[in-house]
Design a protein that fits this description.
Elements (H helix, E strand, L loop, with lengths): L1 E6 L6 H15 L3 E7 L3 H8 L3 E5 L2 H10 L6 E4 L2 H10 L6 E6 L9 H9 L3 E4 L2 H9 L5 E2 L11 H11 L5 E6 L8 H11 L6 E6 L6 H10 L6 E5 L4 H5 L4 E4 L8 H8 L4 E4 L2 H7 L5 E3 L4 H13 L1 H18 L2 H20 L1
Parallel strand pairs: 1-2, 1-4, 2-3, 4-5, 5-6, 6-7, 8-9, 8-11, 9-10, 11-12, 12-13
């Protein structure tokens, strides 16, 4: 099959990682794959380095022209973002290819249901990465397939791990790691408040927060300063090699208010870390019933208590982590995800040809 994926995101987050993993997996199975991506984006660079053909676009206008120019060139056109899905919906009447959209968010649809239903109904196959991500289209009576996002073991460089330990002064410390952009939906301030409570009983605790800047960055820095957490909460910036960062941790936390699935939580589980996360979206699917600890979103005291339990009960916490590790390895493997998309593509192509 000839397959084109669309993703114009400027940064590198979970959706971009999933896009690349899918393309690599399909290419390894003999399909002709290409990626339409923003020129000079991290996704475009990593795809090219991995041997995936990239059609560089400066923006939505350039992608529109590309799709019109090459509308006969592909069997499948797959939108990986809401922005590119909107473009596919508009162009559907003139495209020869079968179209697919993967929904990666769990935000509820309000006020614009008719527009969303029209847009989502324009694709030939609608996919969600979790039951949480599927709720909104299902509420509009649209058929949705579930294909969970995939993760694989992240590489760990022992030398670099030691460098990071020295950089952050981790000897003798209890290390909490989180990986999340400093954006409102990730709610960094609740985790900061929890660390402020926890350091009273666990003075050796340090939280390393890896993630890009975002709209909540100023509030996060103000909260750290106001609570006097300079020695306990470090905004460590974006980390390209999260395997090394996870190797530093005793526990992983996520304080997100919305999460369709949470690939960072999946990574932590696969790395064998006990996880404490908010009881939202895909976190529940990954960690319930006994693979992690869940807390209400925005509840800093409860988050602090759950983190304290992990630090104070290492054997029980490790048993919990091992259950999560086995689950993620079984359910969220890259081959399973690629097979799911391949099956949908083949069904669509056969239907179109029949």
């Amino acid at each position: 099959m000839r397959i084109l994926h669309l993703n114009l995101e400027k940064g590198w987050r979970g959706g971009e990682r999933q896009t690349l993993l899918t393309l690599q997996g399909l290419q390894a199975r003999g399909h002709t794959v290409q990626l339409a991506a923003r020129a000079a984006s991290p996704l475009a660079g990593r795809a090219q380095a991995a041997g995936v053909a990239v059609l560089a676009c400066s923006g939505v206008g350039a992608l529109l022209r590309l799709l019109l120019r090459q509308r006969q060139a592909f069997d499948i056109v797959h939108a990986q973002t809401a922005q590119t899905m909107s473009l596919l919906a508009l162009l559907r009447p003139v495209l020869r290819a079968q179209t697919v959209f993967t929904r990666r968010t769990a935000f509820q649809v309000t006020g614009t249901q008719r527009r969303h239903r029209w847009k989502w109904s324009r694709v030939d196959a609608l996919v969600a990465i979790s039951q949480a991500a599927a709720q909104a289209p299902r509420a509009l009576a649209l058929p949705v397939s579930i294909i969970p996002s995939a993760v694989g073991p992240l590489p760990v460089d022992p030398v670099r791990v030691q460098v990071l330990r020295g950089r952050f002064g981790l000897d003798g410390r209890q290390v909490l790691v989180t990986a999340a952009a400093l954006s409102p939906e990730k709610d960094p301030c609740t985790l900061i408040e929890a660390v402020g409570l926890l350091r009273r009983t666990h003075p050796q605790l340090i939280c390393l927060h890896f993630g890009a800047e975002g709209a909540a960055a100023a509030a996060a820095r103000e909260r750290i300063q106001r609570l006097g957490l300079g020695a306990h909460y470090v905004l460590a910036g974006f980390e390209a090699r999260m395997g090394d960062a996870l190797a530093l941790a005793h526990v992983y936390a996520s304080s997100s208010r919305f999460e369709a699935l949470g690939s960072s939580v999946l990574d932590a589980c696969l790395a064998g870390l006990p996880v404490v996360a908010t009881e939202v979206g895909g976190h529940v699917e990954t960690l319930a019933p006994d693979r992690g600890l869940l807390v209400p979103a925005g509840d800093a005291p409860q988050l602090a208590r759950r983190l304290a339990w992990v630090l104070e009960h290492p054997a029980a916490a490790q048993a919990m982590a091992q259950r999560a590790q086995a689950y993620v390895a079984r359910v969220h493997g890259v081959p399973e995800m690629v097979s799911g998309y391949e099956e949908i593509y083949q069904r669509l192509v056969l239907r179109a040809g029949g």
